[in-house]
């Protein structure tokens, strides 16, 4: 298993010997916290507008966030190069908060998700390796997707449960979306909770750069989402002054009016169809794939997938790619949404094939 062995050989032994003592979480937490400290010390974590360009890495990341006209910036993002102390791994995430405590919720999930995901990934690998029938080489890509799915599902469930009990954050009427990716070698794992979006810029057969959506916006009017909400006695409808904007409502109240069907927090409507379960998918990165952009709906409400890819590809300096996309989206808000307060706008651009 090569690069994995150094990470989970100790975990495998510990889990095997002490499985009945519930110490796996403590071991994983200690390991992931140590890795986070090392990454921070070595400037491998980005939380504010800027870039990460590690010498020798195949990744180049540009990130930018802009406050809108609604108050505090409720968007945030994080990039963690050499995720899990692995040179071939990087984690990127963009979070879009909403509600009175939305900026606190978004930042809490941003800080909680990477180390929690790392713990669950390590423990999933360790548990799988204990299976005598396990053969990682038989179908490596499929097995990796299974591991990341398991890890993301456990992570998102744990974060949402912990957030509900958090004494310092009131997430009853507030929440956040989360769009995250893990690049592991030539594989990209995408996890989506909410209506932020990941879009790939790739070269077509005729040489043009085209946009390929990697996620589905989880809006309440999607058939499978609407069915779940209605079965849970929630309601989905548009307000008269917002035709086409479907929202989630409580059975007997004109609240909370969420424009997404999946989110962390928002516990007032969690019993009525809102979930924090991520959709996890994978994509193999080829020589034709140039970059992936993660962005909040502040971008996608006014900029199409192809427009975003064109803006990024036509930016001469990759360092300014995310900033230019955000600024173009801000101008589009003024042009297309006159009279409506500009939303917070954030984007992270991860470029491939950038080894120096």
TrEMBL record:
One of its GO terms (biological process) is negative regulation of growth. It catalyses: O-phospho-L-seryl-[protein] + H2O = L-seryl-[protein] + phosphate; O-phospho-L-threonyl-[protein] + H2O = L-threonyl-[protein] + phosphate. Its cofactor is Mn(2+); Mg(2+). PROSITE patterns: PPM_2. Transmembrane segments: none annotated. GO terms for molecular function: metal ion binding; protein serine/threonine phosphatase activity. Keywords: Hydrolase, Magnesium, Manganese, Metal-binding, Protein phosphatase. It is an enzyme of class 3 (hydrolase). Residues 60-352 form the PPM-type phosphatase domain. SMART domains: PP2Cc (SM00332). Its EC number is 3.1.3.16. PANTHER family: PROTEIN PHOSPHATASE. Belongs to the PP2C family. This is protein-serine/threonine phosphatase. It comes from Kingdonia uniflora.
